Amino acid sequence: MTKLITGQIQYNLFQLNETDGAHLNVDAYLLTGTKAALLIDTLQETEELYERVRSITDKPLEAVISHGHPDHAGKGLKQFHEAGVKIWMTEEDIRLYKELFGGEYPEEWFSELKDGQTFDLGGQVIETILLPGHTPGSAVFFDEKQQRLYSSDAAGSGQFWMQIPGCIPLHEYREHLASLVSRMDRYPKLRVYPGHRWQSDTQLNLQYLHDTLDLTDMILEGKDQGKDLVMPFHGEPLHYRECSYGMMKGYCYNPGNL
Ligand SMILES: [Zn+2]
Prior knowledge:
The protein is an alpha/beta fold and 258 residues long. It has helices at residues 49-56, 77-82, 91-99, 170-184, 206-220; strands spanning 3-10, 13-19, 25-32, 37-40, 61-64, 86-89, 110-112, 118-120, 125-130, 139-143, 148-152, 159-162, 191-194, 204-205, 227-233, 236-245, 248-253. The site of zinc ion has 4 residues, from loops.
């Protein structure tokens, strides 16, 4: 049984947290503008998300899915689809959602999310920036005016999963991350809102993105101070390494996928 907890971060920004009190703890974000609202991700098990969102806003609503993992594109999707809410996800991750994770809802439910696509909510304009890595079609969402970046799992949440099947080679991710970081450097007050906020006890920011990039470079240069670990993944042992640097407390990667 999971709980759905609403938190208000700012007058126009809500955190919707789903937790089972153990391993499952994931965040979606609801952005409310003067004209429209945008939901980022639909959590995993909870089926009351649509109702909860509608208790906060009655504005025209669209939903974006950051990537095709089941804890961000879960059972809540159904209610949004049935209510006629447009649901966006990148083509690459619609495929991943179906092939790798057996996503239960049909491709036709999704509209194809593109790099650079914007959502004008009135008072906040949200830009889609693709950041492939954690998945081939991961997207982050940027609000330039308010210096907010909604990053889901694309740069981790203080911990980072780059070790699982479906992640792209680390040197390719490095280039995508470097280009995001160089763009974000113009926004010193940047606040980063990730998909698993509980994994860090501090507000993630521009420094966090730099630490993640620097650690990616250390890994690629064979200079990380990490350790070898193993975890079960879909019933199989998954071997990986974990290392840390600065605000990045647990960067997990597959040494066979550099
Ligand atoms: Zn993920």
